[in-house]
Amino acid sequence: MGFILSSTKLGRYVYAIGSNEMGARQVGINIRWYKLGVYLVSGLSCALAAIVLMGRMDSSSGKMAQMFELDAIAAVILGGTSLFGGRGSLWGSLLGAILIGMIRNGMNLLEVSQFKQMMAIGAVVIIAVWIDVIRRKRLLRK
Predict the structure, then answer these.
(1) Which of 14, 18, 60, 81 could form a disulfide with 88 if both were Cys (CB 3.0 to 4.6 A apart)?
(2) Where in the chain does DSSP place strands (E)?
C-alpha cells in the first residue's frame, strides 16, 4: 500500500481527494469511484484484521475489538497523517502504531486500568491534533 500511495496515479489521486475534494473534482478526477475504491480496500482490510483477531482469540464477539478504533486513530495521527487530509505516509502510521502499542503495553505492565488507558490515549490524540493545527497554521502563513 505504501508503494501504491507514493508511486502511482491512484495514490496521487487519493491524496488530492483528501487534501481538496472540490479541487480534485475540478481537475477531472472521478471522485465517486476513487472514494468507493478506498472504502472497499478499507473494508477488506478491516475484515482481514477481524479474521486474524478471531484466530488469536479462538472466539468471536461483537464487542471483542471495542475501542480499538481509538488506538488506530491515535496511531495514524501520531504517524504524521493530518486529520485535514492531503498528508501522511504508511511508514509514519506504522511507527505511530508501534508507539501506541508500546504505550499500551507499558500501561498494562504498570497495571493501569483500561479507563485510564483510554484517557491517556485520548490525551495523546488531542495533543497530536493540536500540534497538527499549529503546523498547518504556520504553513498557511508562509
Answers:
(1) 81
(2) none
Question: What are the tens digits of pLDDT across the range 58-90?
Answer: 877 777 777 788 888 888 888 888 777 667 778
Please, are residues 24 and 86 in contact by the beta-carbon 8 Å criterion? no
Nearest one of 15, 7, 1 to 86, comparing CA atoms? 15
Among residues 76, 68, 72, 73, which one has the least CA distance to residue 93?
76
Task: Report d(CA 78, CA 82) in Å as an integer.
Answer: 9
Q: For residue 71, with 0-12 CB atoms within 10 Å meaning exposed, 13-18 middle and 19 or more buried, which class applies?
A: buried
* Helix, strand, or coil (residue 28): coil
CB 23, CB 13: distance < 8 Å? no
Cell of 139: 504553513
How many angstroms separate the CA atoms of 54 and 111, rounded?
A: 25
Q: Confirm whether pTM is higher than 0.85.
A: no
Is residue 65 helix, strand or coil? Answer: coil
Contact yes or no for 77/125 (Cβ under 8 A): yes
